[in-house]
Description:
- The complex is a heterodimer of chains A (547) and B (237).
- Chain A is mainly alpha-helical and 547 residues long.
- Chain A contains 26 helices and five strands.
- The N and C termini of chain A lie far apart (98 Å).
- Mean pLDDT of chain A is 88; it is low at 1-10.
- In chain B, the strands form three sheets. Chain B has a five-stranded mixed sheet. In chain B, strands 1-3 form a two-stranded antiparallel sheet.
- In chain B, 42% of the residues are buried.
Amino acid sequence: MTDTQLPAGGPEFHKLSYLIVDDFENFRLSMRHMLRSFGVTKAEVVSNGTAAVQMCTYDQFDVVLCDYNLGEGKNGQHVLEELRHKKLLKRTSLFLLVTAETSKEMVMGAREYQPDAYLTKPINRAMLEKRLGALIAQRNALLPINREIDRENLPEAASLCLQAIPRQPRYKSWLLKTLADLYFQMGDFSHARKIYDDVLAQRDLSWARLGRSRVLLAEQQLEESVAELRTLIESHPDFLEAYDLLADALTRQGKLGQAQQTLETAAELSPNALLRQRSLATIATTTQDIERATEAWRRTVQLGTHSIHDNVEHYLALGRSLSDISEVNIDEGWKDQASEALNLLAKMEKRFPEAPDVTAKSLLIQARVHAGQGQMPAANKALAEAHASVDADSVSAQLGLELAKTLFRMKRGPEAEKLLNKLAERFSDDTEVLQNIEALLDEPVGFKQKLQARALNREGIKAFESGDLEAAVKVFEKALAIVPAHAALNLNLVQVHMKQLAEGARDPQLVARSRRRLDALANLPEQHRQYRRYETLRKKLDAMKND
Amino acid sequence: MTEDKTSHPVFADDNPINFSMVLASAVHDMKNSLGMLLHSLDGLRDEHQDTLSGSARFNTLQYEAERLHSDLVQLLGIYRLDEKTLSAHSEEHFVPDFLSQHLSRYRPLLEGHEVNYRIEADDIQGFFDEDLLTGVLNNTINNAIRYTKSQILITASQREQYLVIGVEDDGDGYPEQMRRADTLSFKSLNFDTGSTSLGLFFASSVAHLHQDGSRRGFIKLHNEGKLGGGVFEIWLP
């Protein structure tokens, strides 16, 4: 029979220092009043998130009691993220998020940073005393472990966990979770997995299931990890971290469509997590789902207003998406999107004046937006201004690509190609940059035409597979009319011609036409992914001529 | 503290009005307002200990506000149940700690009503979802305060491989037709009598969400307790 009895060492409320963060004076005072009645002497109060961060910069607090909803400006989650990110909060301190919510994850939904505990309103003195007592007792009991984690001494922390497990049955869950996580961080996946397996053998717990999936993912067992996460989500449809991990696993499998769907579901359940919106936006940009991408980038930018994760890249990505979408969207709304893009870029330049090349990047996107609206003088002016600040021998890859894209868009292809060749030389070790260069060289046209060409390419492949070679030729030629320099498309067409010849076609034009297609790719860089295929086909064709 | 409209999902679809969603949003706002009200009442009680603690009217005020608050929390829970976004995230807890922390919130109210209370819990660990169980206990304790004469007993023990948490009072006990040991379905809610058993439905649903292998939780209502009144039990696998 146990009632008020607390673990040895007991809570020593009054010796600790407290910070109370709340926008309502009434609550600040009553919270401080409660703390004082427990004998606390050091309790500071602030009324907003910015002040809280500032306070923690100059002073160490043992316990931060922070309301989630702080009115205008940062909310409690933002404060937590900023404190953890800037390392202003030690693991040995407690951050308690005060909230009126009963379904916390749904609201906060952050995967990176969790508070040490949630205090659910309404809070009274008796409850606060009990709750703080328990949390501080836990803090004291686990202090040696957290101290080692603060010092990044993970092996020592792990061995302390191991020692504590039989001695501290009260904190068994915490100890097992922390230990598994420590093993994971140290790259010792088999030990981490063993803990999860042992826990799961006893009982099917969602945190252990998630941990096990994370290990499987790290061990490259993608299929097993995906299957396990799907089961977990089925039984726990509110487990947002499981969605994030599943999206990660699916992305690594190359199943971007499914990854996107998974994140869409999670983002609908919990729309306020910036990092999740950013992952969604990134995937949707890759899958060219431009509407979703725009929406998710928009949300990412919005959520960044008070967040430590705010970044100039989010603004640039949204600007690009808006400029693309305003081109596709001819019927309605394109004017709105164009002006939204221009406003956004202006805001970005004010907000991130120090970001590298921010003005030039902004001007280039502006130029494309103007061009999309048919306002060529404005477009040319912006392009000229940006162009003047770029030196092809020293420009960053990102700005160079932005400039090349804009030059293509404004029908100055030769200049763009020259610039890209230079960049390919300078960044010959950087596969990501090379891939971007390739993509631009292949499809230097507007977004709308790009989509058309791709659809035609798929159609041509289908026709080829079904044996209708004539149809395949027609479709590939149509696609090449849009993107004449596209390497894979040219090679596809050549391959159809070869098959026609192999099947006994007697058209002497076929060889000549194939020759012309291959000649068009004569300058294909050796690093290009289609280069080998190009070489093979060229040799084959040469052999035919010699027959 | 002012309720931020973006802090809970707002679905801006062009679809026809989704009434349960509108209701859920409204309930959410009401619940938060009541939270403010309760906080102020606690403050008042602290400041005017001598005059207010024994005031029947003040105690009624606080009791009814608590009851409303816990009803609204349950309504939101049932909404999420309906949306299939409620599940049990069980963790291992030290049961006596959990119960004493929980009961502490009711201390001023119980003292105001001059209800004696105690916890008889074995030193056991149990697996359950803390938030969900908190919702169930809030409602159960509110009920017990309403029906008891002078005391409340909270118990916890391990029985037949289940963790059994009980709330007992010394009132008149449950009437014959309410005593049961199974899962309540939505159909069994009686909206005619004024007492909808919404709380029992919620408790039963929460119990059912708790699962270990093929075993699921359930609730039991009977009058065979130590205090002679009603006994509410939640059995968790």
